[in-house]
Amino acid sequence: MQPTELTAAAPRTQAAALGWIALVIVLAGLNLRVLLTTLGASLEAVRLDLGLSASAAGVLASIPTLCMGVVSLLGGWVIGHMGIGRGMKAALLLVAVGSAARWAGAERWVLYLATFVGGLGIACAQVLVPVVVKQFFPGRAALVMGGYTMAMNVGAAAGAAATPVLTLTLGGWAPALGAWALLALVAAALWPSWLRRRGGGDESLALPWGSAIGWRMAVFLGSGSVCYMALMAWLVPLYSAHGWTQAEGVALLTVFSAAQIGAALVVPPLASRGRDRRPALVATLAMLTAGLAGFWLSPLYGAALWASLTGIGLGGSFPLALTLPLDYTDTPTEAGRLSAMVLGLSMLLGAVGPSLFGLLRDAFGFGAALFFLTCSAAVSCLLGLSFRPPRIKENVS
């Protein structure tokens, strides 16, 4: 069914088609953080088995985020040439291939390459999903993006919780990481290839580099992404260094991910009741800052509380941050262009998180690395105050 057919369809048929699109968006979201959390749950074992320094392990953990940044900045090409139907299928297949190739990750270069391929798939998917949401759910963008980010967090939590069990069952971290390819294959098979981008070839696909609000959104989302990516990679190793077992560290990572799920489910519907997203953004990011300060100042006392606060902060703020480019645009293509620019720049900033955390850990210890994350969250919180309701949209072209 083509978009024009969907518009003209009977209400019941149209509702069913929209329900299916919402479902596959959620299924896609389940796959877009598993690559990160499964590696985070196994990072210390991978580092020791392959003889990696903390800095090298941080670079490995940064690869998917770096891919997200670079590919998102090619968002116009991705939107125009891949399309939202076959393009999403291809993106999810790349995630599957990257996950499966990690099964052979006993060689350093194979693991780095597999992580790169999976990261490319995640990057392409993240560029295309906002276009789909803006086109098919323009009046419910915050709710659908909330469901999408909740699914990402569910996938993240499942990856963190199940990977140690799979490691024992399958006999090592490599097959445990590779087994997640199946989930991406299912999502790729179910994604409807008939989806087409609405709008003609007359719309510019160039990214809006002159948009001041686009740059501000990028720094805002990027400073939060630094915290998210670093915690995903280093939360388990942090507590391993404090004498916790891997199972205990993974349990804390699961608490962190579960808190994100709850916040992604609750915060977007509450925030969508009004046009001003600033109260929700500032409240959630203040919780993130408080949680990170707790990890920094008192890591051994209140760890579950700090994990819950950071999870709520990130899980609540992220879907709202992803919705901001949709608030300030009128068409799916405009939304895709602005989202691609914001995601690209913010993911490049986010990619710094695991690597810089590892460098700070090597040079000064975990305390300095956690202080850096606390400052980054505080910056994001302050920037959240600047996004007034777009009664008169700022120029994004």
Q: What does this protein structure show overall?
A:
By secondary structure, the protein is mostly helical. It has a single domain (14-197, 205-384), classed as MFS general substrate transporter like domains (Growth Hormone, Chain: A, Up-down Bundle). 79% of the residues lie in helices and 0% in strands. It contains 16 helices and no strands. The chain has helices at residues 3-8, 11-30, 34-50, 54-72, 75-82, 86-101, 108-136, 141-170, 173-178, 181-190, 212-241, 246-271, 278-297, 303-327, 332-364, 366-384. Helix 2 packs antiparallel against helix 10 (181-190), helix 3 (34-50) runs parallel beside helix 8 and helix 14 (303-327) runs antiparallel to helix 15. The mean pLDDT is 83.
Keywords summarizing the entry:
mainly alpha; Growth Hormone, Chain: A; 16 helices; globular
Instruction: Assign the CATH architecture.
Output: Up-down Bundle
- Say how many strands there are: 0
Number of domains: 1
Enter the CATH topology name.
Growth Hormone, Chain: A
* SSE pattern, N- to C-terminal: HHHHHHHHHHHHHHHH
Determine the fraction of residues in helical runs and give it as a percent range.
Answer: over 70%
Report the CATH superfamily. MFS general substrate transporter like domains
Determine the number of helices (DSSP H or I, runs of at least 4 residues): 16
